Amino acid sequence: THTFYEVKGDVAVVRINDPNSKVNTLSIQMQKEMAEVMDEVWANDAVKSAVLISSKPGCFIAGADINMIQSCNSADEVTTLSQEGQKMFERIEKSPKPIVAAINGSCLGGGLEFAIACQYRIATKSKKTVLGTPEVMLGLLPGAGGTQRLPKMVGLPSAFDMMLTGRNIRADKAKKMGLVNQLVDPLGPGLKSPEERTIDYLEEVAIEYARGIVNKKIPIRKEKGRMEKIQDYVMSFEFVRNQIYKTVHSKVMKQSKGLYPAPLKIIECVKTGVEQGPVAGYLSESQNFGQLARTSESGALIGLYHGQVACKKNHYGVPQREVKTLAILGAGLMGAGVAQVTVDKGVHTVLKDTTVSGLARGEQQVYKGLNDKTKKRNITSFQRDSILSGLTGQLDYSGFEKVDMVIEAVFEDIHIKHAVLKEVEAVVSPHCIFASNTSALPIKDIAAASKRPDKVIGMHYFSPVDKMQLLEIITTDQTSKDTTASAVAVGLKQGKVIIVVGDGPGFYTTRCLAPMLAEAVRVLQEGVDPKKLDALTTSFGFPVGAATLADEVGIDVAAHVAEDLGKAFGSRFGGGNVEVLKTMVDLGFKGRKSGKGCYIYQPGLKTKEVNPDIGDVLEQFRMTPNPAVSSDSDVQYRLVSRFVNEAVLCLQEGILKNPLEGDIGAVFGLGFPPCLGGPFRFVDSFGADKLVEKMRRFEAVYGNQFTPCQLLLDHAKDSSKKFHK
Amino acid sequence: MSSMLLSTMRGCSVSPSWAVRLGNSSLSESYCLTLLSVQTKSKKTLARPGVKNVVLVEGVRTPFLLSGTTYADLMPHDLARAALQGLLQRTGLPKDAVDYIIYGTVIQEVKTTSILRHNINQRTLGAGFSDKIPAHTVTMACISSNQAMTSGVGLIAAGQCDSIVAGGVEFMSDVPIRHSRKMRKTMLSLSRAKTLGQRLGLIGSIRMAHLSPELPAVAEFSTAETMGHSADRLAAAFGVSRVEQDEFAVRSHTLAKKAQDAGLLQDVISFKVPGRDIVSKDNGIRVSSMEQMGKLKAAFIKPHGTVTAANSSFLTDGASAVLIMSEEKALAMGYKPKAYLRDFVYVSQDPKDQLLLGPTYGTPKVLERAGLTMSDIDVFEFHEAFAGQIMANLKAMDSDWFGQTYLGKKSKVGTPPMEKFNLWGGSLSLGHPFGATGCRLVTTVAHRLQKEGGQYGLLAACAAGGQGHAMVIEAYPQ
Fold first, then answer.
1. Where is the Thiolase C-terminal domain (chain B) (predicted)?
2. Do A194 and B401 touch (CB under 8 A)?
3. Contact B402/A187, CB-based, under 8 Å?
């Protein structure tokens, strides 16, 4: 059973526990049982009040069951689901017996909607306790009364912030916002384990409060403070509210480029409810929920969610040895970034560089990363200091015999990589794994210098390491399964979303990015302004424009990669002239890190201007655009189709194991538009035939760079073939 | 050369001490034997070959007063001086007969502690000790004077000293409140500024934010949690109810009142407070009814917490001092020692969730060291920081699960029987001047052993930082 209740004195304690899952979700079964239990509670005269609590340590209710929504066949069906939820929570809200939601662990989506329908909320101050409405991240909206109740509870601005960003709110913040009424401290060990005892304690306190509410000793609504009264007064003016709707709307349009329907629908539902009353509001909510559930954007985002969950698992088994000490060679941006995400997980981390200044810079980066967390109050200064005590900075290989894994992040030059590999192998113990954080050099070429190629693997991180979620792990034919399992385990510990791909020039991510960047260079050469290029890419859904992306990656790195991959793959990787990039590098325009690239970067300034000198460079390599393939839309598809074609080719060649990892890699590593769900889902939803048709048109002008690969052609021929079922 | 001479002399002094110790141990055995018929207690002495016997000669303390009462206008060293003077008077100790003085305190008065020599002079010279006696201050939160005493025990056991005065003081009527870091920085720069322009510039940089002061808090550095808050969580973790806590607090006050009225608190000395009356009694003892106790609201976790002002120890002013010596020195000087200070341990655990569980960890450890069991102990004195903390410790010691999971034992530690536990009140009722409580516990154990005719006593205390202390004390043969 998912739900049952027991009566303690005059309080019914309703316990939620999905027997088939680690988390509780509002599945059909759960809702049905909940309704039955609540009917009994309401009918039982001995019961004066109720406490709603989960028996799972880290989870109250994590949300609605996504599969339940996905298995619907029409918008109407989803609307009906939403209306059932609304009805259920309306009964909870109007319950004659006060219901106290006792929240420990995640209280998200439908779980939060359930909680805010209750008369009173008590949450544990645990780190695991988070409240939020993440529906927007799945292209949906809170469809069980959330858009109607939240604004009343926390006010319009906070409600919009919660529903439009979907961010998690910690318990103490939720208390301040008025989202929960009372906090309970998590307990340490007593006569039971801390987790068990904390749940018991939460229940005891909640029962006390439930009785207090019945006895009128505890007010359900707290007296409003002066600020809140002022806010309410201000909000009572229609023009103020309209101004808010307008501001929020334009903000959403600016950030989403209108590519995401859910945020706009959320605004609509809230507005309808506030301005036209609850009947219209609830109706708008359920109907919009139904419509959103059927959009391709929602499908794409839900696909990414499932993919992300799948890529947070280790499919290679438990490694023989846990990595307890990890060494990183090179304290540059990457190396220090890897150190930061490792040391804060309690792994002893050795950061080695060749110069004192390089090491000092790297250690400072780690310190700054952690110190910023203290400033945001994510960790205390004490935690920061004790985390940092796990970091050792050094210039030599002393102590490397105790190291379980080495990740090198030295300069991208095969000779230097070989040199450090040999140096490392001379000092480490036999079990130590050597991982290379290269972005393009084939791992088997690096492993060629190794005495034990089974212990060599690629771990491609993305910059900035503490922000980018993806880790691309590259295995060669010789990499052992245990080495892979160990690398995945380390990556998971670092909190990464992991794809494991085959070896080859550029692996998967760099290989997809290179042709797109080559096309971007050509577009620039054809006279398109970098700002215009950025606008074209961002309006397609990329979070970062192509020109800005090149600056972020580094023009020198881009030139390096373009040249290497150009050699490996030939004219298919052509398009823009590599000399453009090389000339820029010669002029010192290496991108953001050198202050100049396509743009000029000035510290402290948020707006960036196009580098005026870049015009001369582009003039030198000017190409005449062909009007037949140079409309804005054509330029967008020229960029995207090369990306997508290369991704499909990676699957065709076996570099990728499945389309899912391809989508995750493209979205989380390269910023492929999340609303499209990744290159493979894009082909499915856009239609392989339509894409091929466009590519053929470009091919006629530019040649083989646009020749669709065989797998793409197969899908174009047979429309029943889909990458995602 | 002189040091060589000295060490030879020390070497010589060891052999008579052996003789004394051996003689003494046989004496105490015969004492046990003679008492066997009367008391049915046949307990061996804890003396160990190769380990010097250290004895408590005397222990005194000023009356412990609620902060902000009669001591309000004093300085911490005034209280310390009173305790030290009291010790000198009661023992008739010659002023130069002390080898070393160690004093404990938690919140340090900047005026007297910023320069150590000055601080110690204030306390010791002022109290009439010779200026040839070296001294230092120790701090270890609520077990500071425990640390002062055991440091002394260590010096005696190592043969470095024969006679030590240890003690502690806390003065909560006045605590140092600092300027903010910003302001301190400005003021320090100001003292270095050379020109008027620089000075004016610095003065001009002072903003409102500079003026907000920094207050010392009874909070953990590592977790920023106040101790009362932690105590409340600890009580909740062990399922200690509000009623249990209130009952224990009432017990403490009732027993303290009884002991005070019966004149059992002989360690208290009278103290003429400058400008005020003579103080000779603790003033925090208040026997309340359970109904009165129940009326109070939670003090830390509001509103559903269980720790209240009435079931917590209160902010206290007070000082204590003890004279400890090697046994042979004490006997040579004609003293009649009160007790032996035997095995002691310090423990440390998680400062967040087990902040106040020191006694639970320390008790089994010190018993093991001494080769005793819980039932061998006649007198228990536990530091009562909070009633909830004491009850939580008792429940932890009574839990098989806790013993197995956290103490690495096969089963529970077992709890001290209440009829032997804190019979003359405790920190809840007598008060708790952080730096002074340890000496009170030791002296009380010694006095109770004498009064009740027991042989072994055990004291235990918790302290900030998740630390704890436990010590076994053996009665000196009467």
1. 335-474
2. no
3. no
* Inter-residue contact A685 to A309 (CB < 8 Å): no
pLDDT confidence of residue B3: 41
**C-alpha–C-alpha distance, residues B325 and B343, integer Å:** 16
Cα angle at B205 between B204 and B208, to 5 degrees? 105
Per-residue pLDDT at A391: 97
> What token pair was written down for B133?
């006696």
pLDDT exceeds cutoff 60 at B34: no
- In chain A, which residue's Cα lies nearest the Cα of B392? A190
Query: Among partner residues A182, A187, A380, which is closest to B236 by beta-carbon distance?
Result: A187
CB A410 within 8 A of CB A358: no
Largest CA distance in chain A: 88
Report which of A437, A140, A412 is spatially closest to residue A262, judged by C-alpha positions.
A140
Look up residue B419 and give its DSSP letter: G
Q: Which residues of chain A have pLDDT under 50?
A: none
Q: Is the pLDDT of residue B24 over 70?
A: no
Q: How many residues does chain A have?
A: 725
Tell me how far apart the alpha carbons of residues A491 and B126 are, in angstroms, rounded to a whole number.
Answer: 65
pLDDT score recorded for residue B367: 97
Yes or no, beta carbons of A189 and B237 under 8 Å apart: yes
Q: CA-to-CA distance for A256 and B358, rounded, in angstroms? A: 57
B462 has catalytic annotation: yes
The H-or-E segment that residue B164 falls in is: strand B163-171
Residue B122: band (very low, low, confident or very high) from pLDDT cuts 50, 70, 90: low
Q: B 343-362 residues with CB below 8 A of A?
A: 350, 352-354
Tell me: the pLDDT tens digits for B156-201? Answer: 999 999 999 999 999 988 887 888 888 888 889 988 988 889 889 8
Do A574 and A705 meet the contact criterion of CB atoms below 8 Å apart? yes
Angle at A384 between CA A380 and CA A385, to 5 degrees: 115
Contacts with B354 from chain A: Cβ below 8 Å = 188-189
Q: How many residues does chain B have?
A: 478
Average pLDDT, chain B: 87
How far is the C-alpha of B154 from the C-alpha of A43, rounded, in Å?
72
